[in-house]
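Many introductory courses stop at the sequence. We go one step further.
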Amino acid sequence: MDSELPPLLVLGPPAVFNIFKSQYPHKYRFLNAFSSDLPLLQFLQTQNTHPSSVRAIFCNQRQLVTADIIRSLPSLGIIATSTVGYDHIDTTECRRRGIQIATLGSQFAADVADMAVALLIDVIFKISAGDRFVKKLVPFKPWSFPSDSKLGGKRIGIIGLGRIGAEVAKRLEAFDCIIMYHSRNKNPSVSYTFYSNVLDLASDSDVLVLCCPLTEQTKYIVNKEVMLALGKDGIIVNIGRGALVDENELVQCLMKGEIRGAGLDVFENEPYVPKELFSLDNVVLSPHAAALTLDCFMDSCRHVAKSLDAFFSS
């Protein structure tokens, strides 16, 4: 019976939730808190569920899993998120309580890296802007729509040479790009030039690609000073988290021509996107969709189910 299944509190909801629910209806009693405007404890009452019976949360970045939420669930033991990052979860409270955080790890790495390269190519060759240009083209009007430059030989500064950053580097090496990087620590297994300072990396780069997690230390790791160091020919690609970049300063730098362009899959205050970016042909925008493929969804569901199975069977 459904009442005998372990309750799974769903917040967000995760983009993969409908697929996950259809695949595992026999494993969990889904508590869809995202569909209710009630405070959490009141919602649980409507579900005839005592807070102490909730041992697992399934979430994404759309809803913060705060210390208050965690404290209200005394038996909580695992938070499974359908994201690679976990900045939407109060990790301090989780550590204090000994609660597991199950992320997707490297599940999305290849797909996110593909998106990073696609955004960069689009910005350099003005593919999206060219598409709009062609669709508005007046017959017999002379065609004059040059791209900015070529991709080959570009100096690529990767901020965060983890799983995703390494995949980005591998792809851009195939275009004869020069790879440099900044991370918390130098990686002795790679030959790329390491920079301990983001400002120095920006000064020596044509492109900055942000792949690192969002933490207190990395918030606004690309600020106005870094953007100015990147320079008028520089491009920023962000497939990490929106707040890695000072978005207000980015908008100003793009509008004033202080950097050449940007490819953005993430934004500081999602789902809000600064309207000033909409009319800029040197900006390519994507709705946090780097990993929104059916293959990724299926892999994500399996990964989350495996994490939950391991928890409930322990």
